[in-house]
Amino acid sequence: MFRLPERIIYSDASEYAGAGFTVGDNHIVHFMWDKEDRIKSSTWRELKAVKNILESLQLMLCGKLIKLYTDNQNVVKIVQKGSMKLDLQVIALDIFHICLNNNIVLEVEWIPRNENTCADALSKIFDFDDWGVSQNIFNFFNSLWGPFTCDTFADDRNKKLAVFFSKFFTPGTSGVDAFAYDWSKFNNWVVPPVNLITRAINHMQMCKAKGVLVVPKWKSAIFWPRIVDRFTDTYQKFSQWKQFEDYANNPRLASVIEVLPSIIESSKAKSTNNKYRIYFEKFRKWCVLFGLQYSPATSTTISLYIGGLIQQGISVSVLEANYYSIKWHHDKNFKDNPCSDEFLSLIVEGGKRILSKPINKKEPVTPEILQMIISKYGIENDLSSLRICVLCLLGFSGFLRYSELAAIKAKHITFFANGTFFQLKAGNSPVRRIVEGEENNQRAMLGKLDQT
Fold first, then answer.
1. Computed over its alpha carbons, how large is the radius of gyration of the chain?
2. Of the candidates 327, 289, 336, which has an alpha carbon nearest to the alpha carbon of residue 308?
3. Other CB atoms closer than 10 Å to residue 311's CB: what's the count?
4. 12 and 49 Cβ atoms separated by less than 8 Å
5. What is the rounded CA–CA span in Å between residue 54 and residue 68?
6. If you count Cβ atoms within 10 Å of the first and of the last residue's Cβ in the chain, which end, N or C, has fewer?
7. Contact of 33 with 1, CB cutoff 8 Å
8. What are phi and psi of 428, to 5 degrees?
9. 3-state secondary structure string across the chain
10. Predicted confidence pLDDT, tens digits, the chain (452 residues)
11. Is the peptide bond before 147 cis (omega within 30 degrees of 0)?
12. Cα 15 from Cα 335, distance rounded (Å)
């Protein structure tokens, strides 16, 4: 019965490496050859590449019909019929058992080299960052600070542990791209490529992971100040949580240490924590965009970020939320907070002044304004208009708030016989007591109405 292939794979091998990829989802398999592998025949390397590709992707190929293309005709024949050469036959049997154990139906087809350019290009990638340490060195550190449970940067050739993460799909890998995983679940053996050392440190801090980091002693490298203090020539203390490591193995203290993060979170309202997470994530994405470290960040990086926000003309509240979210993250996780830098503080304060809206103070009411009100409303025989005039005059003469004016009732007012003065019973507010003077704290003289 005719079936369409459910996965299509292209495979190739060069003198230095073997590679392949799946069509559609573009899963890339790549592996370097050992010195012994490089001296083998091209047929051996091409056949080994097929075997490694199937082994690397076996979980996603399980139970499927696979069409695999190669530009080596001998590989097609050997997969189908086997070989008289022992080393090739061994690989052919490995391919057979991988397919048998995973219920894979494999169809291998030859194509010309000019139709296999992508796999050919992948096979010629030389991993210059492919370095590691000897097994003896690993055993030494494993005896000191182990047992380690995950090799975060490895491949099938140089892995030191059964659980390892790799750059590409490779036989036995536990996952592709170590930064896509939470390292806090492991005791990590971290031997990253040189260009990823700073990022590896950041990821360990973000995950609050533990492990051993192995780097070259390269004092002029960009990552060196992250590891060694340039003034004291001592190792940096990266995390606030480092101080608790010596007590984590004590059962009575470990339970206390476990709840400390949640206690720290409780020092802020839940809404505040959520707001800080949102704004810090924006800062993190900005740093990733420009290739800058964010955890911990430098005062220079934060100054550039805050300065950019000020240029955008954001509100003062948004500026403060961004700044305090970064400060809060570093308060929780690091002993030294870059937000305490005085230069950065000046930028933040300057931004607040630039972005704040000017306060337009209201002009005080003058007798001339009151005369205009009386001229417009006081001559009418309309009770509501006269009420406006009286309220304005009373408020001006007695320094009364609107709430105090609104609370006045007829019983509170006493008119004198000559009609020139009147008295108003005072309330208990501080303003009224100041106005009252000394007349038994119950009455206030508001002034001559005819003078206003």
1. 39
2. 289
3. 10
4. yes
5. 10
6. N
7. no
8. -110, 5
9. CCCCCCEEEEEEECCCEEEEEECCCCCEEEEECCHHHHCCCHHHHHHHHHHHHHHHCHHHHCCCEEEEEECCHHHHHHHHHCCCCHHHHHHHHHHHHHHHHCCCEEEEEECCHHHCHHHHHHHCCCCCCCCCCCHHHHHHHHHHHCCCCEECCCCCCCCCCCCEEECCECCCCCEECHHHCCHHHCEEEECCCHHHHHHHHHHHHHHCCEEEECCCCCCCCCCHHHHECCCCCCECCCCHHHHHHHHCCCHHHHHHHHHHHHHHHCCCCHHHHHHHHHHHHHHHHHHHHHCCCCCCCCHHHHHHHHHHHHHHCCCHHHHHHHHHHHHHHHHHHCCCCHHHCHHHHHHHHHHHHHHCCCCCCCCCCCHHHHHHHHHHHCCCCCHHHHHHHHHHHHHHHHCCCHHHHHCCCHHHEEECCCCCCEEEECCCCHHHHHHHCCCCCCEEECCCHHHC
10. 567 888 888 988 888 888 888 888 878 888 888 888 888 888 888 888 888 888 888 888 888 888 888 888 888 888 888 888 888 889 889 888 888 888 888 888 888 888 888 888 888 878 777 777 778 778 877 877 778 899 988 887 888 888 989 888 888 888 888 888 888 888 889 888 888 888 888 888 788 788 888 888 777 777 777 777 665 555 555 555 556 656 666 777 777 777 777 788 888 898 998 999 999 999 989 988 888 877 778 889 999 999 999 999 999 999 999 999 999 888 877 667 888 889 999 999 999 999 887 767 778 888 888 888 888 887 767 888 888 888 888 888 778 888 888 888 877 777 766 655 566 665 544 434 334 444 443 344 444 333 33
11. yes
12. 50
The pair of three-digit structure tokens given for residue 252, joined into one six-digit string: 């009575």
- Copy the structure tokens of residue 131: 């370095």
Pairing between β-strand 413-415 and β-strand 175-176 as defined by DSSP bridges: unpaired
Spatial contact of 290 and 273, defined as CB atoms under 8 Å apart: no
* Residues composing the chain: 452
Note the pTM of the prediction, 2 decimals. Answer: 0.46
Distance of alpha carbon 61 from alpha carbon 388, whole angstroms: 86
pLDDT of residue 424: 66
Exposed/middle/buried for residue 61 (C-beta within 10 Å: 0-12, 13-18, 19+): buried
